[in-house]
Design goal:
The chain is an alpha+beta fold and about 600 residues long. Helices cover about 45% and strands about 30% of the residues. A six-stranded antiparallel β-sheet has the order 3-2-1-6-5-4. α13 packs antiparallel against α14. The relative contact order is 0.04.
Amino acid sequence: MKAVKKIDQFYLLKQLPTATALLDQKGTLLDASSSWLNIFGLPPQENTTKTNVFSLYPEVLDLELQLLEQKSFTIQHQLKNPEGTRYLKSSFAPWFDNKENVIGAIIQTDDITSEVKKEEEIKWLKTILETKVEVSHTGWWEFDMIKEELTWCKETKRIHQVPDCFQPTTIEAINFYKTGYSQNKVSMLFHNSMVNHQPFDAEVILVTFEGEDRWVRVTGKPIIENGKAIKIYGTIKDIHEQVLSETKIQEHQQLLTTLVDSLPLNVYVKDLKTRKILVNKSECNYLGKKAEEIIGKTDFDLYDEEIARVSWEEDISVMKNLSPIIGKETINILNGKATNYLTSKIPYFDIEGKVCGLIGVSLDITSMKRKEEQLRDLIKVTSMQNQKLISFAHIVSHNLRSHSANFSMLLEFLNSEKNPEERQRIIKMLSKASDNLLETLGNLNQVVDINTKTSETKRPLKLRQNIISVLGNLAALLEKNDSEIINNVSEAIEVNCVPAYLDSIILNLVSNAVKYKSDKRKSLVTIDAVKSNEGVLLSISDNGIGINLAKYGDKVFGMYKTFHNRKDAKGFGLYLVKNQIEAMGGSITVQSEIDKGTTFNVYFNEES
């Protein structure tokens, strides 16, 4: 049998893969593996080399004492070099000879730099996590389904207001939630997560250990292995103040919405692109749309282009120049209907003070404008009536005074006259004066009667039929004067009039056109009528002698004003016509040229 060659033990030491060294009892390095020497940057040990290891462990002050105790021990130390710091772990154990006598120590050194750095990273991450948990008021919890153990972190315990030593069970944890909806909700979610492996996220009310109700957000997610849930990890966050703030904000928003919706104003908010981002009920009612149909739309989507363009220019000016528009009268036209508004537009700023749109408020003043117009009309009518009253008073005073003076003079003549024949002649004159006075009083009464009538007596009348009827009554006059009448009035035209007034107006205007005909040509009277949104316009034109309007224009419709030398002219017809038309809310104008003819235009007011 071949003998095994004996190998030098120090030669074997040098080849060990583990960094190993041998010391004598004084701490002098006898020999070491190459890997150990490389760690400390030492050269191979020779008989002349004497390295004391105490200098290699400067931070271990009691290393020599520990070696003297001849016991095994482990130390962790650092080795700093230009490349960085290395973390090492060295294990010391006694070294025996063949007689079991301690002759030194064996050192085994491991490089634990990566482990130390991992521990430091874990420690750093743990610190970051704890900081985030503390700052965010979010705790974590873990339920081990195999061990049936529930673990809470410190923040979770703080949220529950329990001491750090408290160890909860699942039943105790669920019982912390408020009885009713919250407790049932958490119990159902937790069970569903265990059985159906569903994650959950819910906002519920927690009743703390001290009996305080607090809103929390609790989440959970199962960890699955081999198709089974083995753990459930989750978080719990105290959101009580947040929920209270949101509730308060919602209450304020609801109050603001109720207030804005209750205002008898159209309120809207627009963004920088003039799109509406908020509207109240009045604005919705005016546009005839729901809020969601208006939000995001511009005025070009809602109104006619011209109206929208004017509004857009105002909006841009307000937002660009930061100059509000206050109380501007505007007119909106929607579906052909015009509405008067008193509009204000002011810049809308965000929390940083930058303009982000505008706020618009519009007050519907259509009824006010209508009342203003009615008031102006009333003032106009009152002024006109007052003027007519003054004029009427002058007429009455003048005419009655003339008749009175005439009567006084004739009576005076009668008293002084002795001749029977002359007295008889004076009596006839008195009788004629009496008839004239009665006629004047009749005319004045007729005018008074017209101006005291109300529009309640007006009713729809077929204008053409009334004209035909009046022309029938004037047949003899028309035939005697060989007058031609052209009636162009449509059967469809109706006027809202007092029947007697309409007949009187047509009768007077047509008879005047015939009476004041020209001897140079055949009498021709043309009657036309046009209906529009403003009412009905009746025109009666003739080719007669005409009127000098430059001389008599302001007296044409005066009482007892005549402009031609005709014995039958009394100057009352046109005055009567004007009063009848104005009593019905209409008006009359005249156009005339001498020796060419005259046209009277009668405007009937269909509203009043």
